[in-house]
């Protein structure tokens, strides 16, 4: 659990105005540490997310014998030890709140010559790990979990891994990445096939580190026995963090905000498509590449939104943005239906249940379904909501509060530091009403 205040008071707000760059991408930052650690040579990472999740991953690799320097905030120099250079840790490895950290690390550690234990905070300790234990076990790994396939994970080393041709039952970049990372240490080919394409940062970054890999949406293949070569990694600004301001500026009359250099990987920008379907006014300016990733400046202006049926094909491309989308739907005219998003129930909190409880407390008509929700837009009132320690829930209610008729008290917000340190200051700089940090 991160340090920080336990609650915020937010809204009602006035128009958002201004320009900013949100912090670095969480997914890319985790992977930069991991591949940098396993590479030959020294990797410089710029734009690194100084969040609790990504710092936990860096600490884990330090505990595995990797030297990591912080020459300035949001920079890391990772002294790679090579594929076989990690050292046995002396204690359990703490992944904090990070599902990405734990699941990808399990893939890295499954093929090592030593035992290791991965632990996490209360939220991570409730998140399903069978989805990675099953394929890694099929590759020859030996991993024990608690009842129900929950953390801690006890990984028994000295197992020789064999490549696998694996069709993931859930669309999960974390599962895909765990299998591919284990595949680095495996004999033969490792193939992952997905029911819907998910974010491809592991594949892109493996290629950037010189590992031969073939990939296309929903498919990846690599073979063991190569070498990762250190490189520079420029981390783009996190689309998932930008998402809160895209929604806030869309729903508060008079707003106009420019978000600089936002990562625009198409596997991440489903929310942009969904908001545009709802009538949002968001313009992409100066599209370009930074460090091998597409980025653009996004200019968002207030626009009246209307409800939509969120297209199923967009769901994996906006899986982290549903809390923000629920707020956009609450502020829209008419009905929004979300389905095919059952994965939301196993994120940092059950995001369908926590958003439904919070929106209802603010007077919004929302009905839960097993894999989504039906939201009827209308006035948002003041009240008290509980974030259940989930960073994205806390920030989404800070956004909802800007359209609320009265103040919103938002509890259990300290974990915002896992993905978006400095959120309150940046939000206030745009004119959002949020206090408590
Ligand atoms: C992530 C993948 C997604 C996402 C998470 C980060 C990643 O999880 O929700 O925040 O970096 O691979 P799933 O792949 O489990 O959907």
- CATH fold description of the largest domain: UDP-n-acetylglucosamine1-carboxyvinyl-transferase, Chain
- Please state roughly what percent of the residues sit in beta strands, choosing from under 5%, 5-15%, 15-25%, 25-35%, 35-45% or over 45%: 25-35%
> What distance lies between the first and last C-alpha atoms, to the nearest angstrom?
16 Å
Number of strands: 25
- Give the name of the CATH architecture of the largest domain: Alpha-beta prism
Bound molecules: shikimate-3-phosphate
Shape: globular
GO molecular function, one term: 3-phosphoshikimate 1-carboxyvinyltransferase activity
EC number: 2.5.1.19
Protein name: 3-phosphoshikimate 1-carboxyvinyltransferase
Binding site for 3-phosphoshikimate: 26-27, 31, 172, 174, 320, 347
Task: Describe the protein's architecture and organization.
One of its GO terms (biological process) is aromatic amino acid family biosynthetic process. 3-phosphoshikimate binds at residues 26-27, 31, 172, 174, 320, 347. It comes from Marilutibacter aestuarii. It is a single chain. By secondary structure, this protein is of the alpha/beta class. The chain folds into 2 domains: 8-24 and 237-436, Enolpyruvate transferase domain (UDP-n-acetylglucosamine1-carboxyvinyl-transferase, Chain, Alpha-beta prism); 26-217, Enolpyruvate transferase domain (UDP-n-acetylglucosamine1-carboxyvinyl-transferase, Chain). It is built from 12 helices and 25 strands. The protein has helices at residues 26-38, 52-63, 99-109, 130-138, 173-184, 201-208, 239-251, 270-277, 322-331, 351-361, 391-401, 423-429, and strands spanning 7-10, 17-20, 40-46, 67-69, 75-81, 93-94, 116-119, 142-146, 150-156, 161-162, 165-167, 186-187, 189-193, 213-216, 219-223, 232-234, 256-263, 281-290, 293-301, 335-338, 365-369, 372-376, 383-386, 408-411, 434-435. Strands 23-24-1-25 form a 4-stranded mixed sheet. It has a 4-stranded mixed sheet with strand order 2-17-19-18. A 4-stranded mixed sheet has the order 4-5-3-16, with helices on one face. Strand 14 and strand 15 (219-223) form a beta hairpin. Helix 3 (99-109) packs parallel to helix 5 (173-184). The chain is globular, with a radius of gyration of 21 Å. The chain binds shikimate-3-phosphate (S3P). The site of shikimate-3-phosphate has 11 residues, from helix 5.
């Amino acid at each position: 659990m991160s340090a920080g205040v336990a609650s915020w008071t937010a809204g009602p707000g006035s128009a958002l105005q201004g320009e900013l760059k949100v912090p670095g991408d969480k997914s890319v930052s985790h992977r930069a540490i991991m591949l940098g650690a396993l590479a030959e040579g020294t990797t410089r990472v710029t734009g690194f997310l100084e969040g609790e999740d990504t710092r936990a991953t860096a600490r884990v690799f330090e505990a595995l014998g990797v030297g990591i320097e912080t020459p300035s905030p949001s920079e890391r120099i990772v002294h790679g030890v090579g594929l076989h250079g990690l050292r046995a840790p002396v204690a359990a490895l703490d992944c904090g709140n990070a599902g990405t950290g734990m699941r990808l690390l399990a893939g890295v550690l499954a093929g090592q010559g030593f035992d290791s234990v991965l632990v996490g905070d209360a939220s991570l300790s409730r998140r399903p790990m069978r989805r990675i234990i099953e394929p890694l076990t099929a590759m020859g790994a030996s991993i024990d979990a608690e009842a129900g396939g929950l953390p801690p994970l006890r990984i028994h080393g000295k197992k020789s891994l064999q490549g696998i041709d694996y069709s993931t039952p859930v669309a999960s970049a974390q599962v895909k990445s765990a299998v591919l990372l284990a595949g680095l240490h495996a004999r033969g080919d490792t193939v992952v096939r997905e029911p819907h394409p998910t974010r491809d940062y592991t594949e892109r970054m493996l290629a950037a580190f010189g590992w031969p890999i073939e990939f296309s949406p929903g498919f990846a293949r690599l073979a063991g026995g190569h070498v990762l070569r250190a490189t520079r990694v420029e981390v783009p600004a996190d689309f998932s963090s930008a998402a809160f301001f895209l929604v806030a500026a869309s729903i508060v009359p008079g707003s106009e905000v420019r978000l600089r250099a936002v990562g625009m990987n198409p596997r991440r920008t489903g929310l942009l498509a969904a908001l545009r379907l709802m009538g949002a006014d968001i313009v992409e300016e100066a599209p370009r590449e930074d460090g091998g990733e597409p980025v653009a400046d996004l200019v968002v202006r207030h626009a009246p939104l209307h409800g939509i049926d969120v297209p199923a094909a967009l769901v994996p491309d906006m899986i982290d943005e549903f809390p923000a989308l629920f707020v956009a739907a609450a502020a829209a005219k008419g009905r929004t239906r979300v389905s095919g998003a059952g994965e939301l129930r196993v994120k940092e909190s059950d995001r369908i249940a926590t958003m439904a409880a919070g929106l209802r407390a603010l007077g919004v008509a929302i009905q839960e379904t097993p894999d989504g929700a039906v939201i009827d837009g209308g006035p948002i009132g003041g009240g008290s909501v509980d974030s259940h320690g989930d960073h994205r829930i806390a920030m989404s209610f800070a956004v909802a509060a800007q359209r609320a008729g009265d103040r919103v008290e938002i509890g259990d917000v300290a974990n915002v530091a896992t993905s978006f340190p400095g959120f309150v200051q940046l939000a206030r700089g745009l004119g959002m009403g949020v206090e408590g940090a």
